[in-house]
Specification:
The complex is a heterodimer of chains A (420) and B (228).
Chain A: E1 5-7, H1 14-18, E2 26-33, H2 39-48, E3 58-62, E4 67-71, E5 79-80, H3 91-94, E6 99-104, E7 107-113, H4 119-138, H5 163-166, E8 194-201, H6 202-211, H7 216-233, E9 244-251, H8 253-256, E10 265-272, H9 281-295, H10 298-309, H11 315-319, H12 322-337, E11 343-351, H13 355-358, E12 361-368, E13 376-383, E14 386-393, H14 399-410, E15 416-419
Parallel strand pairs in A: 5-6, 9-11, 11-13
Antiparallel strand pairs in A: 1-4, 2-7, 2-12, 3-4, 6-7, 8-14, 8-15, 9-10, 13-14
Chain B: H1 49-73, H2 80-95, H3 105-127, H4 132-156, H5 161-187, H6 195-214, H7 216-226
The chains are: A alpha+beta (420), B mainly alpha (228).
Chain lengths: 420, 228
Amino acid sequence: MSKRWFRLDTAGLIFPAVAHSDWANVFRFSATLKEPVDPKILQQAADDLRSRFPSFYVRLKRGLFWYTLQEVRKSPQIREDYAYPLTFMGRRERQTCCLRILYYRNRIAVECFHSLSDGRGGSVYLLSLTARYLERKYGLSVPAGPLVLKAGDPPSPEETEDSFLKNAAPAAASRGEPRAYRLHGHREIRGFRHLTTGILPTDELLSLAHRYQVSVTCFLAGLMARCIMDMQDQEAPRKHQRPVRITLPVDLRRLYGSRTLRNFSLVLNLGVDPRFGDYSLQELCTVISHQLAAENTPQHMAGIIASNVQPQQILALRLAPVGIKNAVMRLVYRRAGECGGCINLSNLGLVRLPAEMAERVELLEFIIGPQLSYPNNCSVVSYGGKTVISMIRNIRESELERRFFSALVARGVPVAIESN
Amino acid sequence: MYCVQCGVRLQEGAERCPLCRTPVWNPGEVAGEASYPDQLPPHYRESSRALAIALTVISVMSIAVILIICFRLYGWLKWGGYAIGAILLFDVVAVLPLWFSHPRAELLVPADHVAVALFLLFICVQTGGNWFLSFAFPLCGISCLLVTALLFLLKYVRGGKPYILGGFLLLLGGATVLIEFFEHITFGARMFRWSLYSLGVLALGGIFLLIAGMVPSLRQSMRRYFLY
């Protein structure tokens, strides 16, 4: 039987090109159960989902002109976690399988190369895997829903489509953005990642955000911007400072009604320029909220999508060998890809699980790895009355985490900290 | 258990706050379960061995083809010597580093210079020229000394990068005058046609870097501009 293959989607094209000898863009979603995980049943559950998630059980194959995702014959072998999440996924591993399934004590985790899917797609896979695991272990029947897909159902073509191509505007939006402030520090040896997880009550965080009259995402982005501005104040006088912008990924599925499980999100760099004056937290939250409202429209996003889609249609680039394409994409990514933001803040929002699952799942966690050019990243997910803020870094200094979580505590939100 | 500095609640049994490193004193508390195991992943490094093998095979085959063609057509090497020399030079410069999992530039750069010098010597002998010893050899030697010293200092000396780079630019400026001198004694060219310009530009750059090394605020803004 011939193996199925998929073209990389528009967003996924960039990641094999910019991956290098010690960095690849991988993210992680995990579910902590109320009792220890049985690895044998987890492996069976992973095998069961192979036909339901064809675009996840794939390996990255390098052709003469393009990378493709080729279906693998066997599910990835599940294994125990290492001392830190998101260990480097090297070229050899990506060419074997771009998906990792891990467990440790009560936790099931999935780590996924970003060319396969984004956070929303990854969360659907992890929750479907967890549901299948619980079904196998306890003989439950977890009903299908937007976040949980049933193992036996056939995959729909919409789930594997590249929705970027369908929703691009005829004209592209400008990519030009000023270079934002760079967080920096002393790199950890051997690629070690420090993970600091803050667990806080969702209702208290929500009421705090409402006090500032913004959403939780905008409040957290405002608070993060405030902390980064304070750090920059200690390094340079105001007139020599750089813009402080928080990179917020936006899930486009809601905007365009897509059901794809591939990448379908874009990022917006929102923030302020400290050279123009100081901003209070209230002002930062309001500015970011207004910027988000103004930019997160189907029309504006379609323009940004077009700026990503249009280069793919240039004949000279299409005919160029993959090595040349990679060099061009690396150059573009270094110049424009990450320069506009200081840190990613990816909020998956509130996750609601079916009652059959909810009584056995304690905690959900979402982690994105550090970017190529900046060392810290932050991701958020809320479930079961708890909001989990995961801050990862590949440097020794924990200054940003200290300022951020202390600021939350100072505003009356109790934060429980865990770290590796 | 809470951190007295940050006010956050800590994991059971934590010895220090992970945010501010403040020690925690709680003698009665038993350590809780760690959220991650202790085992580190195996050290991974991308290997270029396959590419190295492919390029070496291509080089060997190319040399064999050149030898066959030259000996069949002319009965001796003729132009084949230059082609083979160029292929071997390419192998030393581009393929040799691929064979090592941790290529060390401070060792490979002298090897590259030796290869270039040998290739130039071959060309000089073949063409009956007398420019090798008085021009090409000193040029290779100066370049080898300067680049190797730069790589060595950048790798093994902690800090002081502006001084190292500034000193390198000043020496490079001086080297351009030497190169013009060797050009003068070998080919009879007039002195100081171009080297004083390059000396001026490189010396200015070098002095700027030395000043940057001495003035912390200038050094910081340069770091911010170029690195972050």
